[in-house]
């Protein structure tokens, strides 16, 4: 009877971890799709799989250090800056001098972008999973690995939408800017320094992040297009 209860607890814990990972990982599916959208069709599946695999492995490792990780001052602020740059970069077209680079280099670049962005965006996810697992790293690994196919499928769905509706790329980049703004507000060290903020700032700062990504991204994209035409 004890074994049955123990097994039941295990199942409930794993289901909790899967639910957390899928619900909080929806944004990650968007960034995975954005990072892999410029790969040749035959490499997209590999980019999504290996990028997700690397991000998941790193996420499991980060669970060990979850609470200590978030205690570092200004970590979220640094992560938000990195996320803003990733969002801007994803709006830029490929430069001409990249045309001769082998597909494997493109693939590795996409995988690297997926891993970095997923890690930055998954700090809250990591803490939530660590809490649900009650210190059982085996359950963390099992729950996250089970959720991988769901995230991969979601990324492939977003890729198809971006192929049919390019505006989705802009929305995805804006989402990264919005999340970056939220990360700024969640930085404890910055909150202590700034003091209490008005309620409207919880919408204004993420919105500013989204607009910043779109504005800078489109400006740089137009500048690159003009340089390309002027050659």
From TrEMBL:
Membrane topology category: Multi-pass membrane protein
Record-linked Pfam families: TerC (PF03741)
Transmembrane residue ranges: 12-36, 48-67, 135-154, 161-180, 200-221
Keywords: Membrane, Transmembrane, Transmembrane helix
Compartments, record wording: Membrane
GO cellular component, one term: membrane
Keyword Transmembrane included in the entry's annotation: yes
Superkingdom of the organism of origin: Bacteria
InterPro entries per record: Integral_membrane_TerC, Integral_membrane_YjbE
Family indicated by similarity: Belongs to the TerC family.
Name of the protein: TerC family protein
Organism encoding this protein: Solimonas terrae
């Amino acid at each position: 009877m004890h074994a049955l209860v123990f097994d039941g607890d295990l199942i409930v814990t794993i289901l909790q971890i899967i639910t957390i990972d899928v619900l909080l990982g929806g944004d990650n599916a968007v960034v995975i799709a954005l990072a892999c959208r410029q790969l040749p069709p035959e490499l997209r599946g590999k980019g999504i799989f290996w990028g997700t695999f690397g991000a998941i492995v790193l996420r499991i490792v980060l669970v060990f250090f979850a609470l200590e990780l978030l205690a570092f001052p200004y970590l979220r602020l640094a992560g938000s800056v990195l996320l803003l740059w990733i969002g801007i970069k994803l709006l830029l077209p490929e430069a001409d001098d990249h045309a001769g680079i082998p597909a494997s280099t493109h693939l590795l670049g996409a995988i690297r972008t997926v891993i970095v962005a997923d890690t930055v965006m998954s700090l809250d996810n990591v803490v939530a999973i660590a809490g649900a697992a009650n210190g059982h790293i085996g359950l963390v690994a099992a729950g996250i690995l089970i959720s991988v196919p769901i995230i991969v499928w979601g990324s492939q769905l977003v890729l198809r939408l971006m192929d049919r509706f390019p505006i989705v790329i802009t929305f995805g980049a804006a989402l990264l800017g919005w999340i970056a703004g939220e990360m700024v507000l969640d930085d404890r060290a910055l909150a202590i320094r700034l003091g209490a903020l008005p309620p409207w700032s919880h919408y204004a700062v993420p919105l500013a992040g989204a607009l910043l990504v779109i504005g800078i991204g489109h400006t740089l994209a137009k500048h690159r297009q003009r340089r390309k035409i002027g050659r």
